[in-house]
Specification:
The complex is a heterodimer of chains A (about 500) and B (about 250). In chain A, about 25% of the residues lie in helices and about 35% in strands. Chain A has 14 helices and 23 strands. In chain A, the strands form 3 sheets. In chain A, strands 5, 6, 8, 10, 11, 13, 15, 16, 18, 20 and 22 form an 11-stranded mixed beta sheet that branches. In chain A, strands 4-3-7-9-12-14-17-19-21-23 form a 10-stranded mixed beta sheet. In chain A, a hairpin with a 2-residue loop joins strand 3 and strand 4. With about 250 residues, chain B is an alpha/beta fold. Chain B is globular and about 55 Å long. Classes of the chains: A alpha/beta (about 500), B alpha/beta (about 250). Chains A and B meet through helix 11 and helix 12 of A and helix 2 and helix 3 of B.
Chain lengths: ~500, ~250
Amino acid sequence: MPAVQETIEQVRKIDVDQYKYGFETEIETDKAPKGLDEDIIRFISAKKNEPEWMLEWRLGAFRRWLTLEEPNWARVEYPKIDFQDIHYYAAPKNQSGPKSLDEVDPELLKVYEKLGIPLKEQEILAGVQKEQPGEFEEAGDNVYKSGRVAVDAVFDSVSVVTTFKEELAKAGVIFCSISEAIREHPELVKKYLGTVVPTTDNFYATLNSAVFTDGSFVFVPKGVRCPMELSTYFRINEKNTGQFERTLIIAEEGAYVSYLEGCTAPQRDENQLHAAVVELIALDDAEIKYSTVQNWYPGDAQGKGGIYNFVTKRGDCRGARSKISWTQVETGSAITWKYPSCILRGDDSQGEFYSIAVSNGYQQVDSGTKMIHLGKNTKSRIISKGIAAGFSQNTYRGQVSAHRKATNARNFTNCDSLLIGDQCGAHTVPYMEAKNSTAKFEHEATTSKISDDQKFYVMQRGIPEEEAIALIVNGFVKEVIQELPMEFAVEAQKLIGISLEGSVG
Amino acid sequence: MLEIKNLHARVAETGVEIIRGLNLTVKDGEVAAIMGPNGSGKSTLSYVLAGREDYEVTEGEILYNGQSILEMDPAERAASGIFLAFQYPMEIPGVATMEFLKVAMNAQRKARGEDPLSIPELMKRVKHAAGELSMDLAMLKRPLNVGFSGGEKKRAEILQMKLLEPKLCVLDETDSGLDIDALKIVADGVNQLRSPDRSIVVITHYQRLLDYIVPDAVHVLYKGQVIKSGDKSLAYELEENGYAGIIEEAA
């Protein structure tokens, strides 16, 4: 079965009553003791066999972090996090160094199978082998071979497997875990790491810089169109473990890459912390498309448990005519604090942000984007669709700014909110600032409610209530779904339906 | 097909009673017209038949093929073969008409334990039905009812009715807002659906529609009750003399 089909089938089979990925897996792990100090950081760095400069970088960040205060401007409420009560490193035992699939613990493979993530590249390759060699040259024209997705799977603190590595290497693309990149490609990591999100950036990003354990690294060299979709699946399994992944994607001049990220976690009563940093760098004429389907455990119906998701994602359109596009479907997490942003540094560069944020139960979402126009003739586009149900609070927070040298900067923003029921809230907080008189910013916002009329009409055609709601909501978010790679679009639509289960009645 | 006995229904929110002891029987294969002045409860009757939650049935019974439907939700009633063509069809932004048809047809098939239609089969059926209604196929790509003209909306309703093959069709003021050409097309669509095992209830304010959809029976609704029933000549009588005479007669 092709990878996509397999994933879709798995999603289809999902029992829709509760969080589907709530299982916990019995895998022996190697954990750091709870708490955070310089020794823990040394421990992590040693576990990863990191060079000295990396350790110094981490320690620098840690010292900085000690001077920072947790931000409190977002519209989210949660009890104070005890940063000393978290394990900062957990790894499945017997996992050291990169390996082929054959060497991966079968228990782990089972986990990913349960999640519907196709790692078995052999199966996928079986279909590929029939094709003629030299397909990479032909793949240069925007067409992806359907179902061919290279996957990097991150389990708690370590990357367990990366598929299709060799095939990607033929095209000159480096796709590996960040730990491996630090060891194998230190010159690239040194050159780019922390150049978009500096270690001093913000409380969570600084914490991440000190303790990040794994994540993905992508390097697409000059003029190369990455021959397949790249994808990372993150899973937090261990109890009281924080996940701090770090992702770094570099597209050199004229390169193109599309990257997908998916996340899940087991169902637990305690809250778990996830503080990731993602940095994207696009040089002249390069394009990076970054898509996320985030489905961390959102907590139970009473609002107990769930993931605290504090993420810093930023793309730097460093080169002229470069383009970075963020597409996110956010359905999980108890708390989401996330603002994927673009720095439009290169002249004629473009930034895009397409977002669907669904909240139900007691979830709190504070998400949006920043478009920082620095170069001339830079363009940005923001389409945000917030859907609030249950007792949730859903805030769009966005900032669009034009530097005084950013002549002819253009922005179009559209924020729509949809409310289901009358116990939830939707909020829009846009900031706009133009220091150049030629800048043109447009902002549109609407808030609507699924009307009883609409619901009755759809049900009268024989469509059961929850499907009716899902249909109306999927219509509402269609503009964003269209931006997702095909493989994810189907999953995302189903996920939205599932997330809204129990939102009516 | 349909038997309504001493039905009382009120608006759930305000408690105002609209249907007050209504009795009505519609036989298999019959086309029944329900006429009445504004505010007589015509639209409410259609909503109550379709199971809209905003109305509460406080007394009486609705039997559909001998079974009470009062406990069924709108989707269950629809899947059992009850179709309501709306006076004001709702807009569903972002959902292409074709997609909506697919979801609706397959939801009903699922409820009946049938397999979903294959895409080619679905396309074939939809194109055929749309052709019979002289509909522009480009319309199927547009979000359902969004930006449709009055005539297009009504045609889209009839298209859905044809494709879902209901047993009991209720048309709520389908003639409102239609010019004569659109009216003829809609009426043709309804006439194509006439069959011995399908009943059609046409709710209308004016006799005009009944020139094109000729009813087997006409019922006059007033203050939530059927006050007079007859054959199609009753419609002509109403057209000539208005409701006043019949209302007085019944009083």
